[in-house]
Amino acid sequence: SGFMAWLLHRIKVRPFHANKLYATELLSVLLQQNPPNQILLGELDGILALLTAASHYKRKDPQGLEEAELIENVFDCLVAALSEPDNQTLFLKAEGVELMVLTIKERRYAAHGALRALDASLSRNG
């Protein structure tokens, strides 16, 4: 849990930074098909951290390929985490649905990832 908490701390850094990109890549790998890690992410307020990271791109496009990859990683993490019903509840409480709809309406780079996350949040699991 210490490593995941550290990764989430790196993701919370406001401006784009290479370490933030690497943290999202590692977190994405940890969450893929791994319910214990998905549950841990929810317990560590990771859904809120990922939504905060996604919100930075609601109205702006990435400034380069690395920043675009960061956005994709954030949404990959959200989609993986949302396979856990408790994380879906956290997503709803954190107004994740509203953020995804606003992001889609802006028609920016992040819109496709927002649509994937919205779909995952509305899927029934379990």
From TrEMBL:
Pfam families: CTNNBL
Subcellular location(s) of the protein: Nucleus
InterPro entries: ARM-like, ARM-type_fold, CTNNBL1, CTNNBL1_N
Superkingdom, natural source: Eukaryota
A Gene Ontology term for the protein's cellular component: spliceosomal complex
Gene3D superfamilies: Leucine-rich Repeat Variant
Beta-catenin-like protein 1 N-terminal domain: residues covered: 3-123
UniProt keyword list: Coiled coil, Nucleus, Phosphoprotein, Repeat
PANTHER family, sorted: BETA-CATENIN-LIKE PROTEIN 1, BETA-CATENIN-LIKE PROTEIN 1 NUCLEAR ASSOCIATED PROTEIN
Name by which UniProt lists this protein: Beta-catenin-like protein 1 N-terminal domain-containing protein
Naturally occurring in which organism (per UniProt): Strombidinopsis acuminata
